[in-house]
Design a protein that fits this description.
The complex is a heterodimer.
Chain A (H helix, E strand, L loop, with lengths): L1 H7 L8 H30 L11 H10 L2 H10 L1 H20 L1 H15 L6 H4 L10 H4 L22 H6 L13 H25 L7 H22 L11 H18 L7 H8 L2 H5 L6
Helix pairs in contact in A: 1-6, 2-12, 3-13, 4-5, 5-10, 10-11, 11-12
Chain B lengths: L10 E4 L2 E4 L1 H7 L5 H9 L11 H6 L6 H16 L1 H8 L5 E2 H11 L7 H5 L6 H14 L5 H13 L7 H10 L3 E2 L6 E3 L3 H4 L2 H13 L4 E3 L8 H5 L3 H17 L4 E4 L2 H15 L6 E4 H10 L4 E2 L8 E4 L2 H6 L4 H10 L3 E2 L24 H16 L4 E4 L2 H12 L6 E4 H8 E2 L1
Parallel strand pairs in B: 4-6, 5-6, 5-7, 7-8, 10-11, 10-12, 12-13
Antiparallel strand pairs in B: 1-2, 2-3, 9-14
Classes of the chains: A mainly alpha, B alpha/beta.
């Protein structure tokens, strides 16, 4: 994990939360993820009693994975519209934040680039990147693309803020960036995840859908905390009386939580981000549905 | 609940907790494929599955959400087969509450295993199957419903869940004009337990076979497919019956096994081999598939049957949704019913509600089954007042709907219409 740390341009001051988040928790999270993923996948095979054989091929499985996406939405749209709104808000805007917000692209680009040994592997994402805040001079069209600053006033991840990114983020969104930006997408994702959490609490308390395990709450609270700390880092939200409310600490906490989340994914429902595509075609393998 | 021990070991009640030991769990999960393990573990418990389930729509109980059954079975699975589950079990952090276990019996039988919840699930979690696994544990622990235990017992003793013995079956088959134990026939016809006691259906099968110019035989040993035992959670009795069918087909040297029952197709073609870990190497067909194939080859002539009713279809969940046979039944019905009111949805659609199916035969479920049946009847009644079914359990269920004036007036079994329409 050392190359990752170097690549990110981390500070080595071990007295900071930022340092711990970036140099300890995040790499550890990645490591746990790798072992967790192996464990999770192996469980399908260790827990089974006998293998089953395919009756449909990868093509039909893949097609099923795509075409079946709207099915649960259609089913629940009338009876539980709130669930659908939460789901759409959370998934679409959370993915937006992770994939197209500039500071995240820079982070993933350096991380994957260093791990895989490929320079600039996410070059294509730079072309669609959008800034974190809608108040930046960049979006107002006053200062031009080079004024695009990541993370507001203080950016502890200064090494990521390359000129390359600054100059290539202007093209696709233009003034649309007033809507398509980290803040708006982050707030909508926050609304979605808060909705999930509130719905789950209400349904568990009223007994309408008492299906939750403690892990479900850990998972949702972790996600909520990641979004909140991300927004707080971006705006350098001060915490009165604590004495250390600086942006580096918010970033440190944010990165540490993301690391913890990555490590927790194989042991939680977060695994569905991978499992979904495998699962959609499974019935075709186990039964005859797609044989016709 | 009295303290008790199961023969296969490890069922006891300690205070408010139920202990289900490794042996029972191991036996219960003995036909799990990697996909089933995946299904148990991946459920996100979003609850979308409940909207496709008429039982939940009636009761609104958390224990009737299909995902709840998967949650419960996964709890048992993880206690013995996952690292953290084993630790949690040893530390007594994960145990089954007595109250929770008592609701299994209600929940496991508030499900026809129709598969709509699986179809609608974002991850296609096999909740229908976990309901059957729950029944299996109820069976092992002696907590099962007496009516369904009778199916299993009958299947084990005389090979017919409804209690029809060999002599009675042979008489029925002969009265219907079917050949019995004819070696080297082309087709072995395997009726389900409900069909075996209905001479009208058996006679119609004979007429259809003539129309197809097929040499069809029945076996004096086989008067039931065996799925009632499976539905009762006695997978062993069901497996014995499935094996008997495949062996009988070999013995009679037939080319294929034919079933006229939608659920029969699913169990003989898919779930039976899966459960037995065995490839029977003989084609299993539903009657509508056979007729459709011959129709396509222009080997059989189908006229419109002489029926004036507007008729819609209640598709068999096991034939289409779980069994994968969608086009043949609809195409055959279109060809033979003069005023066929075809549903817009494809036969496997999650939006088509299940009927009461085999639960119609369970006395203690009558009240809830009557209520949940209203959902399917509501859908069908909007299309036509007469309904054709492709599975004898569906026929029984909708006949009960007619008796209870739930919104349809007549039920046809498809063999009746087909026998009128087929020309030899």
């Amino acid at each position: 994990m050392l190359p990752v740390i170097y690549a990110i341009g981390a500070s080595y001051s071990s007295d900071a939360l930022y340092w711990w988040g970036l140099n300890v928790v995040f790499p550890l999270g990645l490591l746990i993820f790798v072992f967790g993923a192996i464990y999770r996948i192996s469980r399908y095979f260790l827990g089974r009693r006998f293998p089953s054989y395919a009756v449909s091929g990868f093509g039909s499985e893949f097609k099923e994975a795509i075409t079946a996406i709207p099915t649960p939405f259609r089913s629940a749209a009338k009876r539980d519209p709130f669930l659908i709104v939460e789901t759409i808000f959370w998934h679409i805007f959370m993915l937006g934040v992770i994939i197209i917000v500039g500071i995240h692209i820079i982070a993933w680009n350096y991380i994957f680039g260093t791990i895989l040994g490929i320079p600039n592997p996410l070059w294509f994402l730079f072309k669609i990147s959008t800034p974190e805040q809608f108040t930046s001079a960049y979006q107002m069209g006053l200062l031009g693309s080079n004024s695009y600053s990541h993370g507001g006033i203080l950016n502890p991840l200064g090494a990521w803020n390359s000129a390359e990114v600054s100059t290539s983020t202007f093209d696709p969104w233009g003034f649309l960036a007033v809507l398509v930006n980290g803040t708006v997408m982050g707030l909508l994702a926050l609304a979605g995840i808060t909705g999930y959490l509130v719905t789950r609490i209400i349904e568990d308390v009223t007994g309408h859908k008492r299906l939750s395990s403690s892990g479900d709450y850990i998972f949702l609270i972790l996600l909520l905390a990641i979004v909140v700390t991300g927004l707080a880092a971006m705006y350098d939200v001060p915490i009165p009386y604590l004495g250390i409310p600086n942006q580096a600490n918010w970033y440190g906490l944010h990165i540490a939580l993301v690391g913890a989340f990555i490590g927790y994914v194989p042991f939680s429902k977060g695994w569905h981000m991978f499992g979904y595509y495998i699962g959609k075609g499974f019935r075709g393998y186990a039964y005859g549905r797609k044989k016709e | 609940m009295a303290e008790r021990k199961s023969e296969c070991g490890g069922f006891k009640v300690e205070g408010g907790k139920v202990k289900i030991g490794r042996q029972i769990v191991s036996r219960t999960l003995d036909e799990m494929t990697p996909y089933d393990v995946w299904g148990l573990q991946e459920c996100m418990r979003c609850g979308v599955c409940r909207y496709a389930c008429p039982f939940w729509l009636v009761t609104k109980e958390a224990t009737d959400i299909p995902a709840w059954r998967t949650y419960e079975i996964n709890k048992l699975f993880s206690m013995y087969y996952t690292g953290y589950g084993i630790v949690a079990r040893v530390l007594r952090l994960r145990r089954l509450k007595k109250k929770e276990y008592l609701s299994w019996r209600e929940s496991a039988y508030n499900c026809t295993a129709c598969g709509a919840c699986t179809d609608v699930s974002p991850l296609e979690i096999p909740n229908w199957y976990t309901a059957l696994l729950m029944r299996r544990i109820l069976h092992y622990t002696g907590m099962n419903i007496p009516d369904v235990e009778k199916w299993a017992e009958n299947t084990k003793k005389i090979g017919n869940a409804m209690g029809i013995d060999k002599t009675q079956w042979e008489n029925n088959a002969k009265s219907a004009g079917l050949s019995v134990d004819q070696k080297d026939a082309e087709i072995l016809y395997v009726p389900s337990a409900l069909e075996a006691q209905d001479i009208n259906i058996l006679s119609q099968i004979g007429i259809i076979a003539q129309g197809l110019r097929s040499k069809l035989t029945v076996s004096s040993e086989i008067s039931d497919i065996g799925y009632y035992a499976y539905f009762a959670g006695d997978f062993e009795a069901a497996r014995t019956q499935f094996t008997k069918i495949y062996e009988e087909a070999k013995k009679l040297n037939v080319k294929k096994i034919l079933t006229s029952d939608g659920a029969g197709l699913f169990f003989l073609r898919w779930q039976g081999p899966k459960s037995l870990h065995y490839n029977p190497e003989i084609r299993v067909e539903h009657l509508t598939e056979t007729v459709y194939n011959e129709m396509e080859k222009r080997n059989v002539k189908l006229d419109k049957a002489d029926i004036n009713d507007d008729i819609t279809v209640h598709d068999s969940e096991f034939l289409s949704r779980l069994g994968g046979v969608e086009k043949p039944p609809r195409e055959v019905l279109k060809a033979i019913i003069p005023k066929f009111k075809e549903p817009k949805q494809k036969p496997s659609s999650y939006s088509l509600f299940t009927c009461g199916h085999h639960l119609e035969l369970i006395n203690e479920k009558k009240e809830i089954v009557s209520k949940m049946r209203a959902y399917v009847v509501g859908q069908l009644g909007n299309l036509a007042k007469a309904v054709v079914t492709l599975d004898p359990n569906c026929k029984l269920s909708l006949e009960n709907a007619v008796k209870e004036n739930q919104g349809i007036s007549k039920v046809y079994y498809y063999t009746e219409i087909l026998a009128k329409a087929i020309k030899s």
